[in-house]
Design goal:
single chain; alpha+beta; 8-stranded mixed β-barrel; 5-stranded antiparallel β-sheet; 26 strands; disordered N terminus
């Protein structure tokens, strides 16, 4: 590089003389300006040797003014800016942009050269190039399918991942912007078009739009795509294009669909569950409201005595039965119908597009017939029956839950009729159900409000008429319905569970009454207080503890208490009943089977139960003289009891001829209107006061009236 001689006086060039009030600039001012400018400047003579460099140039070149003196500088051949690479002693080469301007110094031609350091610009450009290259590599090797779509719809860039995801090469999308529309599934195509249109017309910066859709790969396999569109806008708001990113989410979608299937389907049978069934039922209801020619029916099905199968054969066998029942139901219906398992042994069936309501009845009958055919489980042949409640169109546009309620009401009506049948819902059933629900609520309030009270009916020795004991019977003094007999509420109490509280109250009041009477009348002290125990009470956990509590609180001697339990209650789980009855017997309490003959007893179990007596149901006593067959039934029951070491109580004795016959059959005890009607506590006290306390003989009512 050419240099300059230190101390050279600078003068303003003749061609650039500054005019200010027509006075030339001072040479010292020009020199000062040259030295102070931050732009690196070199002053060269006509031969290109450096005459002078300002401090900015010295700093840029990394040399002193003396070192630069008279060095040559390769002047550019043009007045336009030119990029040059300058060597620097002991320093890396320097890339600069040089711009020359011709001028005259002290009458001699020369050059003013300005220098611009291009190092930062070069580094920045290289960084940008490297970044662009890296981004290109990332885009080309990303798992997602990346695209840049121009505003007019053409693809400016398609990453190679598209071939892995779709099976098609990127060039097919670049050559034909509409190619993708041919592989999007037809069901999703309109949604995809709307999605792309919304992305291209979005005027909001930073909008990110998302869509999941299906497309068909080159090999024909369907895949799920999750695509995100990001519109890119210029500063003026115009759309520069769309950046799209798409991923294959088939595995995730399959998992979601499977989870949804598990959420909405029964795991054992694969049938829709309650939530999915109600959704389909609601859609059927809406179709019926829009179409006058559309009929559908709803059926609620419950297997009869399914619990017995689970208890006797085990839950695994029960599951096999449910799977087989499901298959039979599906074989009975059409493909457009829906079957749902609600849990346990309950099924709901939706029958659609019926020609008439009669068509539903035909299908229901076919279901019952197929279910009732014998099936073999674990080498055991079973016969399953089902009770069904049916709701037929038209259904008054009731919501799905209400329709299901009505079907359930009809199902309960079928079970009450004796099971293994179906009932079609009527509004009368609903009225009855509402009445029963109201009564249940009133019953629970009545127990708390002491609306229930006891009456007591004496039972006597048939041959001596001596008082043996009392049966406690519950009555309900309803605040609006008046006096209600047990037949009006006991079954409901049993079904709803209210019998637990009611039965506990009866046991407590009966024991308390006996203790109070025994304190006043000696004749009572050798008698029994007989209390009916429902099946629900008997199977209740903690039943024995509840008996002990009552005995302790009332002071009732356990040997003066007799519990009457029905055949059905103890035979429902005979093994458990035998154990529980033995524990009750160990407490000193007497035991009796109530209403014997109306249920089913296994003789092998009956002899294992520690029973004291059997109580013949009054229906047999009333019919003794109607036919010889009925007489023989009573005779057989008495003989059976005696064979098993039990005594017999005949219930419902109403006249002398019945008493005489029972005496001839060697029946021990009798209870009925012939001797005494059920009496409340105050009347019972009067009755006891009239007895001989040493020999409390009960005079029959008919004889007492004659006297």
């Amino acid at each position: 590089m050419p240099g300059t001689t230190p101390g050279t006086t600078l003068e303003p060039p003749a061609t650039q003389q500054t005019e200010r009030n027509d006075a030339p600039a001072s040479p010292l001012a020009v020199e000062a300006l040259f030295q102070e400018l931050p732009q690196p400047l070199l002053l060269l003579n006509a031969a290109g040797r450096i005459q002078q460099a300002n401090p900015a140039a010295l700093a840029l070149l990394g040399e002193s003014a003396k070192a630069l003196q008279s060095r040559s500088f390769a002047l550019p051949e043009t007045d336009a800016p030119v990029a040059l690479v300058l060597s620097r002693p002991g320093l890396p080469p320097l890339e600069v942009e040089a711009h020359r301007s011709q001028l005259t110094w002290h009458g001699q031609p020369g050059w003013l050269v300005s220098l611009q350091d291009l190092t930062e610009r070069t580094v920045l450009r290289r960084t940008l190039d490297d970044t662009a290259a890296r981004l290109h590599v990332i885009a080309d090797h990303a798992c997602s399918w990346e695209c840049w779509i121009l505003p007019h719809g053409a693809y400016a860039h398609v990453s190679p991942s598209c071939e892995r995801i779709t099976g098609y090469e990127a060039q097919q999308f670049l050559d034909d912007p509409l190619f993708i529309q041919g592989i999007v599934e037809e069901e999703d195509l309109q949604a995809w078009k709307d999605f792309m249109h919304a992305s291209a017309t979005s005027a909001t910066r930073g909008d990110i739009l998302h869509l999941d859709y299906r497309l068909r790969r080159k090999n024909g396999r369907q895949v799920w795509i999750s695509q995100t569109n990001c519109p890119v806008h210029a500063r003026d708001g115009s759309l520069l294009g769309l950046r799209t990113s798409a991923q294959d989410i088939t595995a995730r979608k399959q998992m979601e669909l499977e989870l949804r299937r598990q959420t909405l389907h029964d795991q054992l049978t694969g049938l829709p569950n309650r939530a999915l069934f109600l959704d389909r039922l609601e859609h059927a209801r809406l179709r019926a409201s829009r179409r006058s020619d559309y009929f559908f029916a709803l059926c609620f099905l419950d297997l009869d005595r399914f619990k017995t199968i689970n208890d006797s054969l085990g839950h695994t066998a029960g599951d096999k039965v449910l799977v087989e029942v499901t298959r039979r139901i599906l074989d009975s219906i059409r493909t457009l119908d829906t079957v749902s398992r609600f849990g346990g042994d309950e099924y709901a069936i939706l029958l659609e597009e019926l020609v008439s309501p009669r068509g539903a009845v035909q299908i229901v009958k076919r279901i019952r017939q197929l279910i009732s055919e014998p099936l073999v489980v674990n080498d055991s042949e079973l016969r399953i029956t089902a009770s069904m409640g049916v709701v037929l169109s038209p259904m008054d546009n009731l919501p799905a839950e209400m329709l299901l309620r009505n079907a359930n009401i009809a199902l309960h009506a079928a079970k009450e009729q004796g099971r293994d049948c179906f009932k079609v819902f009527t509004n009368k059933m609903l009225d009855q159900a509402v009445m029963l629900m109201t009564m249940e609520q009133e019953m629970r309030r009545g127990v708390q409000g002491d609306e229930f009270f006891l009456v007591f009916q004496p039972f006597v020795h048939l041959h001596t008429s001596e008082l043996v004991g009392f049966e406690a019977l519950v009555r309900w003094r309803h605040p609006t319905r008046g006096l209600m007999p047990p037949g009006a509420f006991i079954a409901l109490a049993e079904e709803t569970g209210a019998i637990i509280d009611l039965g506990s109250m009866v046991l407590h009041k009966a024991c308390a009454a006996w203790v109070a009477w025994a304190e006043q009348w000696p004749a009572v002290r050798n008698t029994l207080m007989s209390v009916n125990i429902s099946g629900r009470q008997f199977s209740q956990f903690g039943f024995l503890d509840s008996i002990r509590t009552v005995l302790e609180k009332t002071g009732m001697p356990p040997e003066r208490l007799k519990l009457e339990i029905t055949e059905t209650a103890i035979m429902e789980d005979a093994e458990s009943s035998a154990e529980k009855l033995s524990r009750i017997k160990e407490m000193g309490i007497a035991l009796s089977i109530d209403d014997f003959g109306t249920g089913y007893s296994s003789m092998s179990y009956l002899q294992r139960f520690p029973l004291d007596n059997l109580k013949i149901d009054l229906s047999f006593i009333r019919l003794m003289h109607v036919s010889q067959e009925n007489m023989e039934i009573v005779r057989a029951i008495i003989n059976l009891a005696h064979t098993l070491g039990m005594e017999v109580v005949a219930e419902g004795v109403e006249d002398a001829s019945q008493r005489r016959t029972l005496q001839e059959l060697n029946c021990e005890y009798a209870q009925g209107y012939f001797y005494a009607r059920p009496m409340p506590d105050d009347e019972m006290r009067a009755f006891l006061a009239g007895l001989d306390q040493e020999h409390p003989v009960v005079t029959p009512l008919a004889l007492a009236a004659a006297d």
